[in-house]
Specification:
- The complex is a heterodimer of chains A (87) and B (852).
- Chain A is mainly α.
- Chain A is 66% helix and 3% strand.
- Chain A is built from 3 helices and 1 strand, in the order ααβα.
- Chain A is elongated, with a radius of gyration of 21 Å.
- The two termini of chain A are 28 Å apart.
- Chain B is an alpha+beta fold.
- Chain B contains 27 helices and 12 strands.
- In chain B, strands 1, 2, 9, 10 and 11 form a 5-stranded antiparallel sheet that branches.
- In chain B, β9 and β10 form a beta hairpin.
- The longest helix of chain B has 57 residues.
- Classes of the chains: A mainly alpha (87), B alpha+beta (852).
- β1 of chain A pairs antiparallel with β12 of chain B.
């Protein structure tokens, strides 16, 4: 179960604000209902889409299969310099 | 109230208008544009109506205006158009003034044109004559010195070009023999240049070579007065002998539309004539100039007002057209109209009517009566510039039944979202969003420009859709971590390389293991990990699994949403039984089967994976939750439907995902299947019960509105046809049930197009990058720079034309399908008809468009 709390909280709160708090303060007028629906659906769809991407990666079943050159580049730029010693 | 959720409430009203006030009142209503009049004399043909004369007069005026406009266009005078200013419909008495003005203008213009044409014709003749004189002068000058001009000239002409005509010897011989009686004559004229070869051949054949033709081209083009085209002409001169030939030559000239001019033989005469022609041309020029000036003045004056006049005339015509729909009452003092009116706007309409009465100075106020009716009112959704495009997407499928739930407000977001799932690319999305934003930002100037291209109209009409689609594509592109097929590493990838140098050197492809320190054990916080874009070997495997799952998840949510909207319809139309025998079984069916599958996906995502601290452990408890034991959702689902359990091929794994799964699944399938007969027989059963009850109470006609789906539906014919009707209900319900049950399966599968198109888009983008831009980026030196420059142009062109435009179009169409079929079939009947108010704005718009 690999997840970290921070991104989940951040994005849920972010879309929660858009989808729940913002509609309450939608400007009065003939289009209030439309604005509310637009905000709520935007939040719902975007949050769901983010959630699926996040959850699909929580427990990866396979790992990426990479070219050795790419791997060398990855170790250089993303940290974790190569183990020079034989492992 | 956001009326977009349902169409506006309409009432049928009867309108009594005083004859003298009718015109002003209708004009006010036209400005308002909120009233749809019904034709009260559908049997009367168009020529027998009351205001035919007026309509005809308006047509005549319009014709005159169009003539004026054509003339103005021809002279290239700009027509003054003041945006935003629109004259009101003039009083009926002003019509006479307008008519007089137009009549005067038209006559004046026609006269001027006629004069100008006559003058031009004259001018053309004179110019041609001038050319003839000049050219023939050259012919004659070539044989100066002969005693007898004609004779020497003839001879000279013949010897001039010995190879030209076969007959020259013959002609020359005869010439010598018959020199005494021979009186050569000639005609000179002008002919269109392209007719020369045929003309020459004809002359030769018809006169058996006994004529002699010389021709010279006129260099400058001449204006044809009838069509005002520029044409090229040639001067010719024909020599021949005898009267017979003369008539023949003249006939041929006539046939070829050549104009003949008298040309004196003596050089002095010719010179004199040339002088005369020159002075006459000069005179004509001044007169022509003055005529043109006059015409221009008249047209400029007309151009200032022409748009205004058009508006006025069209308004008058529209008003009389509408008045033709009305009924005369018995006393002939007042007109009766029937109209559909939005209930909320009754006040404004009353006000407009009062204004109209005041304007016409009538003392009797108009009467607006509400009427009861059993007819279905028209569907009217009040839209603004933002929502109208989405509403039109819905209308393109079918106009909503009166007061049923309108999908448009939900489509505003779900449409761009589903589009973006297929079009997810930050770069392409940004291009689209920028284009959409530009159209929205420059809305007013672009609208004023009136660009006349259908494709542009489609794009401009959908500018808000394009903007939203672009923005959502940027978001999904960020989640897919895909910008022109490259990824962004904003938050730092969760994958590390732990292979040492020697392993790396000896293996070309290496897989990182999630069940080790290669994976940091927490996912990339926003979207897909950037490492996957680099994993050329198995990126597609991972992305396919992910995208297929989200397609189904999104699809099931979308369909559940659609079914829930049908609940609002049932509640609104008070179809209580429909809630129990349609909505409930439908939602249970969908939830227990397909939503359960979605849940299984989430369970799979959260349950199976590595356990930190126990990497590579063989302990049974850990192996059971490892990636090795992850089941296939699809196989699980199929087995669930077939009540089947596969043999467990992996003995160290559990064959269920959670305890009690098998029993629960069996229960779900049984309950879901039980829903089918409820959907099938529930409604017919209730209808039968009701009819029996009614029969027991006696044969009173009862309003069956609630059961018939329309709030003010037609009364059910009691008794009699009851058997017939019940079979009809059965068939209807059977079709609906089959459609829903089979539809649930096929529609769920249909949402896989989200995955397929998204995959295709990502692959195409990758191909474009690898085949083009990458080659350019890999070339070195300054030639490489030039190469990159060219390659970038190609890549950019392909990106915009194929990936943004064509892929965008295909994703758009698939999104449209998902909304029309998969979403709207769950709740939307779309059997209404559109409210078409009498509005000057719409009439003028369509008239303006038809004109262009």
């Amino acid at each position: 179960m690999g997840y970290s709390v921070i991104p989940i909280v951040v994005f849920t709160v972010l879309w929660g604000v858009v989808g729940v708090i913002c509609p309450i303060f939608a400007p009065k007028g003939p289009n209030r209902g439309i604005i509310q629906v637009v905000l709520m659906l935007t939040a719902a769809t975007c949050w769901l889409f983010w959630l699926c991407a996040y959850m699909a990666q929580m427990n990866p079943l396979i790992g990426p299969r990479l070219n050795n050159e790419t791997l060398i580049w990855i170790s250089r730029t993303w940290g974790n310099a190569m183990n020079k010693t034989a492992a | 109230m956001g009326s977009l959720f349902r169409s506006e409430e309409m009432t049928l009203c009867q309108l009594f208008l005083q004859s003298e006030a009718a015109y002003a009142c209708v004009s006010e209503l036209g400005e308002l544009g909120l009233v749809q009049f019904r034709d009260l004399n559908p049997d009367v043909n168009a020529f027998q109506r009351k205001f035919v004369n007026e309509v005809r007069r308006c047509d005549e005026m319009e014709r005159k205006l169009r003539y004026l406009e054509k003339e103005i266009r021809r002279d290239g005078i700009p027509m003054l158009e003041i945006p935003g200013e629109c004259p009101e419909a003039p009083q009926p008495r002003e019509m006479i003034d307008l008519e007089a003005t137009f009549e005067k203008l038209e006559n004046e213009l026609r006269e001027v044109n006629q004069n100008a044409e006559a003058l031009k014709r004259n001018y053309l003749e004179l110019t041609e004559l001038k050319h003839i004189l000049r050219k023939t002068q050259v012919f004659f000058d070539e044989h100066e010195g002969g005693a007898s001009t004609t004779e020497s000239m003839t001879r000279a002409l013949i010897s001039d070009d010995p190879n030209r005509h076969m007959g020259h010897v013959q002609l020359g011989l005869r010439d010598k023999q018959e020199s005494l009686e021979f009186l050569p004559c000639f005609v000179a004229g002008v002919i269109l240049r392209e007719r020369i070869p045929a003309f020459e051949r004809m002359l030769w054949r018809a006169c058996r070579g006994n004529v002699f033709l010389r021709q010279a081209e006129i260099d400058s083009p001449l204006e044809d007065p009838s069509s005002s085209d520029q044409v090229y002409k040639s001067v010719f001169i024909i020599f021949f002998q005898g009267d017979q030939l003369k008539t023949r030559v003249k006939k041929i000239c006539e046939g070829f539309r050549a104009t003949l001019y008298p040309c004196p033989e003596a050089p002095a005469d010719r010179r004199e004539m040339a002088m005369g022609v020159m002075t006459r041309i000069e005179d004509l020029n001044t007169v022509l100039g003055q005529t043109q000036d006059h015409r221009h003045r008249v047209l400029v004056a007309a151009a200032k007002n022409i748009k205004n006049w058009f508006v006025k005339v069209r308004k008058i015509k529209a008003i009389y057209h509408t008045l033709n729909l009305f009924n005369l009452d018995v006393t002939q003092k007042c007109l009766i109209a029937e109209c559909w009116v939005p209930a909320l706007d009754l006040e404004t309409i009353q006000l407009a009517l009062r204004r109209g009465t005041e304007r016409s100075g009538s003392s009797v106020p108009p009467i607006l009566n509400r009427m009861e009716t059993l007819e279905d009112p028209p569907t009217y959704n009040r839209t603004n510039k933002f929502t109208s495009a989405f509403q039109n997407l819905i209308y393109a499928y079918g106009v909503a039944t009166y007061r049923e739930v309108n999908p448009a407000p939900y489509t505003i977001i779900t449409f761009p979202f589903l589009f973006a799932v297929m079009f997810g690319d930050l770069g392409h999305g940004a291009i689209m969003a920028v284009f959409g934003f530009w159209m929205c930002y420059k809305e007013k100037p672009l609208q004023a420009k009136r660009i006349d291209s259908e494709i542009w109209h489609i794009f401009f009409g959908g500018r808000y859709i394009i903007l939203l689609m672009g923005l959502f594509s940027m978001y999904t592109g960020l989640i897919y971590n895909d910008i022109f097929s490259k990824s962004l590493n904003i938050f730092g990838s969760s994958w590390r390389n732990n292979y040492n140098a020697s392993t790396l050197a000896s293996n070309r492809l290496l897989q990182l293991n999630p069940d080790s320190d290669d994976y940091l054990q927490y996912p990339y916080p926003f979207g897909i990990d950037p490492v996957w874009q680099l994993a050329e070997a198995n990126k597609i495997i991972f992305m396919n699994a992910y995208k297929m799952k989200i397609s189904i998840i999104i699809g099931v949510f979308h369909m559940l949403f659609g079914v829930c909207l049908s609940l609002w319809n049932h509640i609104y139309f008070k179809r209580r039984t429909s809630i129990y025998v349609e909505f409930v079984p439908q939602i249970v069916f969908l939830t227990l089967l397909f939503f359960y599958m979605v849940l299984l996906m989430f369970i799979k995502w959260t349950t199976y994976g590595s356990t930190p601290g126990h990497f590579g452990s063989q302990e049974p408890e850990i192996v059971k939750t490892s990636a090795f034991c992850a089941p296939s959702i699809l196989i699980t689902f199929i087995n669930m439907m077939l009540f089947k359990t596969d043999e467990n091929t992996r003995p160290q794994c559990d064959d269920v995902m959670y305890s009690g799964q098998m029993a629960l699944q069996k229960l779900f399938v049984i309950v879901a299947l039980l829903c089918v007969p409820i959907m099938l027989f529930g409604k017919p059963y209730f209808i039968m019960m009701e009819q029996k009850q009614r029969a027991r109470q006696g044969h009173q006609p009862v309003e069956g509105a609630a059961e018939n789906g329309t709030a003010g539906g037609a009364p059910v014919p009691a008794g009699g046809h009851h058997d017939e009707e019940i079979t009809e209900v059965f068939i209807h319900q059977g079709i609906h049930t089959i459609e829903y049950v089979l539809g649930s399966v096929s529609h769920t599968a249909s949402y896989l197009r989200l995955w397929a198109l998204s995959l295709a888009h990502a692959q195409l983008a990758e191909v474009a990058w690898n085949m083009l831009l990458r080659k350019g980026l890999m070339s070195t030196d300054f030639q490489g720079g030039i190469f990159l420059y060219i390659v970038f142009a190609g890549w950019a062109a392909i990106s915009v034309s194929i990936l943004v435009l064509m892929e965008g179009l295909s994703a758009f169409l698939h999104t449209l399908r998902l909304h029309w079929v998969e979403f709207q079939s769950k709740f939307y009947a779309g059997e209404g008809y559109l409210f078409q108010p009498f509005s000057f704005e719409i009439i003028l718009d369509s008239a303006g468009q038809a004109e262009e």
